[in-house]
Amino acid sequence: MDAHPRIYLSDTMTSWPWPRAINPHFEDVKAEVDASFYEFKALSPKTREAYDRCDPARLVARAYPNAPREHLRIGCDLMNLFLVVDEHTDSENGAVTKEMVDIVLDALHNPHKIRPEGECILGEIARQFWARAIQTARLPSQRRFLETFTAYLHAVVAEALDREQDHRRSIDDYLKLRRGTIGAKPCFPIFEMGMDIPDEVFYDPVVVELAECSTELILIDNDMMSYNKEQAIGTENHNLISTVMLELGLDIGSAMAWAAHFHAEVQKRFIDGLAKVPSWGPSIDVQVKEYLDGLANWPRANHCWCYETQRYFGTRGPEIQQTRLVPLLPKANRKAA
Questions:
Q1: How far apart are the first and last CA of the chain?
Q2: Residue of 13, 53, 105 whose CA lies nearest to 311
Q3: How far apart, in whole angstroms, are the C-alpha atoms of residue 66 and residue 294?
Q4: At a CB cut-off of 8 Å and minimum separation 6, what does 323 contact?
Q5: Distance in angstroms (rounded) separating the CA atoms of residues 79 and 73
Q6: In the structure, how many helices (H) and strands (E) does the chain have?
Q7: Cβ contacts of residue 294 below 8 Å, gap of 6+?
Q8: What digits encode the pLDDT tens for the residues 7-37?
Q9: Residues with pLDDT less than 50, the chain
Q10: Which of the 8 DSSP states describes residue 238?
Q11: Residue 336 has what pLDDT?
């Protein structure tokens, strides 16, 4: 038996046509957003250190390389909201998670209402984010954000119930839930904040399928890269790799290979889908192309960010990106102190 087992991590994005890019406003907006976010005092010293290593503004700047400065700022505020929702709910039961989700939803639907004294900080973070966003986001994008973010929050509650009940899902059921908890779909309305894409276009089956494909590419890569860290600390049940291992009886390496093959299939679905996009006339088509380019770029941005920051690989991201080998972390002691 290998005394130092390693996981082989396939380079899933090697043939993806969309190249790495970054928004020119990245450094300025990052400094502004970080300073504003720290004022909430929502993070413990340990969690703030993890936040700094994670560098969420870098992900946003890679995801929206062409966004105007204000929309980049909104994207960064949204990413911070995701992080604090995750931080506050990832060890809670279903009932407590539902209470927090209800606070966030109330804040989003009442962005000008002062939050109650002593309320969980999630309410004020959500309120300030949305009060700023609606100043520049066009109404269709606002509506679609609220729709998709609500679905994300409901998925977070479902994940908490799974965790509470130690419930394991089939691959298909897991993917249905993970498409929600990954939080990709609420990020897509950032692309259309300055657009006027009609509902008939946005909800066209081909466009919907392309958004699904982008979401799946992001979640597959995320689960492949986060699995090692999650299996070490005992949170791997909500992960595609452990789900595949359980249902198909595979070891880690075979489950990783299964995920990489699935990733390649989804890439093909996306590329094939682009050729099927209808035309709605020149003025709409140019906006649709910009939106779909955004969907295509998000998986590239996520893939780059995972290696460039310390979220999953510590300081070894660039090395692992070259060697494709991840040293398997030992299981942490999960017994209560």
A1: 31
A2: 53
A3: 9
A4: none
A5: 10
A6: 14, 2
A7: 63, 64, 188, 191
A8: 999 999 999 999 999 999 999 999 999 999 9
A9: 1, 334-337
A10: S
A11: 39
Query: What is the C-alpha to C-alpha distance for residues 70 and 158, in angstroms, rounded to an integer?
Result: 33
Spatial distance between the Cα atoms of 177 and 295, rounded to a whole number of angstroms: 20
pLDDT for 235: 86
Residue matched to tokens 């899902």: 169
The phi and psi torsions of 150 (rounded to 5 degrees) equal -60, -45
What contacts 76, CB < 8 A, 6 or more positions away? 29, 30, 33, 56, 57, 60
Residues comprising the chain, all counted: 337
Tell me, rounded to whole angstroms, the distance of Cα 329 from its chain centroid. 24
Say if pTM beats, i.e. exceeds, 0.85: yes
Q: For residues 28 and 160, give the distance between their C-alpha atoms in angstroms, rounded to a whole number.
A: 36
pLDDT, residue 27, reads: 98
pLDDT of residue 333: 65
- Residue 240 in contact with residue 337, Cβ under 8 Å? no
Q: Determine which helix (DSSP H) or strand (DSSP E) holds 7, and give its type and residue range.
A: strand 6-8
Q: Can you state the angle between helices 94-109 and 69-89, rounded to 10 degrees?
A: 150
- CA dist 324 to 184, 241, 254, 307, Å? 25, 17, 15, 11
Q: What is the pLDDT of residue 1?
A: 45
At 35, list the tokens: 């300073």
Residue recorded with tokens 């809670």: 92
The token pair at 282 is 């020149």
C-alpha dihedral, 29 to 31 to 62 to 23, nearest 10°: 40
